[in-house]
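Methods — Computational structure assignment.
A single polypeptide chain was analysed. Its primary sequence is given first, followed by the predicted tertiary structure written as structure tokens.
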Amino acid sequence: MANWEKYADDKAKSLGGFEKKEKIIKEAVAEEKDEFDVVIVKAEPAEKKEYVVYKKKQWDSATGEALADSEQEYSLEQLEAEKDGHDKAMADAKAKSDAMVDVIADFKKL
């Protein structure tokens, strides 16, 4: 999981960001014909899948040597669900904070 608090800074410094990728799910099949020019294997195009990764540069902390970039695949649904979780946590924290107003007021009355 990425450290989203550092996203804007990493992006500005070209240390991390999103990148579209593509992978082949099924290789293309070439048409084959027999000696009578009859198609025995129908040609089929390759099947590809596009996806998005968050790519971040990495270094060896001991030597400072660049390591392979880390890549984590994300979907829009995953990112929206993560944001919804943070929004709910903020709302829960706000409700607890608001409840403490009455608690503190009652305590001060003693």
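Note: Residues 59 and 66 are 4 Å apart (CA to CA).
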